[in-house]
Design a protein that fits this description.
Length: 136
């Protein structure tokens, strides 16, 4: 099993946004290619650049999918928050953010502002069962 953090934007982002994350960043944005682009939306996985693809490297040793929230390493929280800020800046039509075990559908959805999502990340309260829908 593997933790996957997915961001789906309601529009395509400028190519330089993806490039920004590759330049010396600790977290990377990995574009999911395929039908998203054809639908003029963009989907990314937020990943530990050293691992590539998944976000397991962001979790503490004691993190559990059975807990209510993911336990991210404290040092990763500002990076995750910064990633959200960058996405929000370029995603004028809103986006979704979810952290889920690979292949698992999250049963709940919550509407939040970018500010609220940043606060959730700051306080290490990202839900294991809720997808966040961020209004533009
Ligand atoms: Zn993994």
């Amino acid at each position: 099993m593997c933790l996957v953090i997915t961001v789906k934007c309601a529009e395509t982002l400028p190519p330089n946004v993806e490039g920004d994350f590759l330049d010396g960043a600790t977290l990377s944005l990995i574009p999911q290619h395929g039908h998203y682009r054809e639908k003029r939306t963009a989907a990314f996985n937020i990943s530990d650049i050293q691992v590539g693809g998944c976000a397991c490297g962001l979790l503490t040793e004691t993190a559990s999918w059975e807990a209510d929230t993911w336990q991210f390493k404290l040092g990763m929280l500002p990076l995750l928050e910064e990633t959200i800020v960058r996405i929000a800046k370029h995603s004028r039509r809103g986006f979704t953010f979810e952290a889920a075990w690979h292949g698992k559908e999250l049963p709940h959805e919550q509407r939040v502002t970018t500010k609220e999502l940043r606060q959730i990340i700051k306080e290490n309260r990202v839900s294991t069962t809720t997808k966040y829908r961020v209004a533009a």
